[in-house]
Design a protein that fits this description.
221 residues; alpha/beta; Nucleotidyltransferase, domain 5; Ubiquitin Ligase Nedd4, Chain: W; 6-stranded mixed sheet; 33% helix; globular
Amino acid sequence: MAVRQITGGRLNQYVKDYVVFDLETTGISVKEDSIIEISAIKVKDHKPVEEFTTLVNPGTHIPVGATNVNGITDEMVKDAPGLLEVLPDFLSFIEGEILVGHNIQSFDLQFIYRAAELLEKDVPNDYVDTLYMARECLTMLKRHRLVDISDYFQIDIKGAHRALNDCIMNQQCYEQMGKLSKDKTVEICPQCGGELRKRSGKFGDFYGCMNYPNCRFTRNV
């Protein structure tokens, strides 16, 4: 019987210490596509202090469609290490840190979880997904892609869709959004650190955790 992998939960917090990370891949399918670049920036007291970045040889041809998006070619990755060689170093880099990234809940983290399973490793890091954060605090925007948020804050988007450049953009966007939301009162779940939101149920209003069903904490209004 397979042992269930331990993963973290999504937070809705503005924190001062974290690792912002981004992947480039051969496509959008977690099951069929491969990671071709991993980058991360470690942030302490809101300031970048260390970088991790590497191309990854997927062991297969990179589709033209992927190259058109991120500019990464077969030639660029031919001498790069494979994922199982790179992943332990990445997991060591993020150990014990809150992760920050854009659309990481649905995309980047799913690739990392799947790869970590091959090494029988857990990825227990809690994380902040800036896509959800942007939808909440930048409601005036029609779209909430990383480039849209960067444009709003007048952050340089040159080199977008390369992992390290996206990390740099995302870190700046996170800090800007954090400043906007800092004065807002956010109810925090005492069990998992996620956000509590007011809901209506059969027996009246209550506060429920946004990480439901992974966290089932509730409290009365």
